[in-house]
Amino acid sequence: MSTTEQELDSFTQFAKARLRGGGLSLLDELFDLWRAENPSETDYAEDEAAIAGAIEDFRRGDRGRPAGELSRELRQELGVHLPLPCQSLVPVWRGTFRGTNT
User: Fold this and answer.
1) Closest Cα to residue 33, out of 41, 42, 24?
2) Are 18 and 30 in contact (CB under 8 A)?
């Protein structure tokens, strides 16, 4: 059996199991999920090289940038605005607290 036939059989089994389990039903979603769980040798090698490069950067002292900073820049570039934070998500309780009326 060729590699392509093996991959097709693997995907078919994966898709049938997901559909029986009530999981994703769109073919594109099924394929994307299957590819994430079954990377090709090329994808695996690229991921491995990227991880090795990141580890080497870390060893050289490059700690990258804070995620919040990058997220803020990306939101600005895409024009995405977050709602203002609520003043309080906890309701104000009135009454006795530790024996003191408030």
Assistant:
1) 24
2) yes
